[in-house]
Write a structure and sequence with these properties.
binds 2-acetamido-2-deoxy-beta-D-glucopyranose
Length: 198
C-alpha cells in the first residue's frame, strides 16, 4: 500500500517537474531593438518563450506579475525611423495568442509626427483567451514622421504572446477606423514648458 502511494507520488512529482520545466523555458534577454516600456513595466514579465510560439521558436511574451497595479500597463516594443514608409499608409499585422487576459491587450502603434497617430486598440480591447490569430492596425505615416513605435501592450492580469509581425504598404490609402488620438504624436507630453523654477 505504502509502496503504491510512494510510486504515485513519484509519478506526480515527475509530472509536475515536466510541466514546470516546460513553462520555465523562457529567456529575459530580448533580441536587438526590442525593449520593455509602459508606465508599469516593472509589474510585467517580458521576454522570449521557447515553448509557445507561432512558426518557429521563440515568441515574445508579456505576463502580469502577481503584484500588478490595476490600471498600469507594460509594452514590449521597438522603434525605428520609417524611411521607406514616409508619406504612405501602412498596415502592421502581428500574430497573437493570449491566455486569461482579465485586463486588456492589443497591438500598439505610434507615429511621431505633428499629424501622427496613436492606436493601442483601447477602443477594441482584446480580452479572454485565444489561440494564435492575426491582429492588425493601419496608420498613416506623414512625411515629417521621425519615429514609428510598435509592439504589444498588456494592462492588468493575463499572458500574451506575440510572433511574426510584418508591415505592408496599403495600395489604396484610406483613413483608418482605428485612430484613437489623432494629432497626438507626442502622447503624454505637455504642450508647454512646465515647472521652470522648480
Ligand atoms: C512588483 O514586483 C516587482 C518585482 O518582482 C517590482 O519590481 C515591482 O515594483 C512590484 N510592483 C508593485 C506595484 O509593487
Ligand atoms: C498608467 O496609465 C493609465 C492611463 O493610461 C493610468 O490609469 C494609470 O494610473 C497609470 N499607472 C501608473 C502607475 O502611472
Amino acid at each position: 500500500m505504502i509502496r503504491n502511494i510512494l510510486f504515485w507520488m513519484l509519478v506526480f512529482i515527475n509530472y509536475v517537474f515536466q510541466i514546470f520545466g516546460q513553462v520555465s523555458q523562457v529567456s529575459y534577454e530580448l533580441p536587438a531593438e526590442w525593449f520593455r516600456a509602459g508606465n508599469s513595466s516593472q509589474d510585467y514579465e517580458m521576454g522570449l518563450d521557447y515553448t509557445i510560439f507561432y512558426g518557429k521558436a521563440p515568441s515574445g511574451f508579456i505576463k502580469s506579475r502577481a503584484n500588478f497595479s490595476e490600471y498600469g500597463f507594460g509594452i514590449l516594443m521597438q522603434e525605428f525611423f520609417p524611411k521607406d514608409y514616409l508619406g504612405k499608409q501602412v498596415r502592421l499585422t502581428c500574430t497573437m495568442k493570449y491566455n486569461n487576459v482579465l485586463g486588456w491587450t492589443g497591438i500598439l502603434i505610434q507615429v511621431y509626427s505633428i499629424n501622427g497617430m496613436y492606436d493601442d486598440m483601447r477602443n477594441r480591447k482584446i480580452t479572454g483567451t485565444s489561440g494564435w490569430k492575426e491582429i492588425n492596425s493601419i496608420v498613416n505615416v506623414p512625411e515629417d514622421t521621425t519615429v514609428l513605435a510598435f509592439g504589444i501592450l498588456l494592462s492588468g492580469e493575463g499572458t500574451v504572446w506575440l510572433d511574426e509581425c510584418s508591415f505592408e504598404l496599403m495600395e489604396d490609402a484610406f483613413f483608418p477606423f482605428s485612430i484613437v488620438n489623432p494629432n497626438d504624436g507626442n502622447s503624454g507630453l505637455p504642450t508647454y514648458p512646465t515647472n521652470l523654477s522648480f
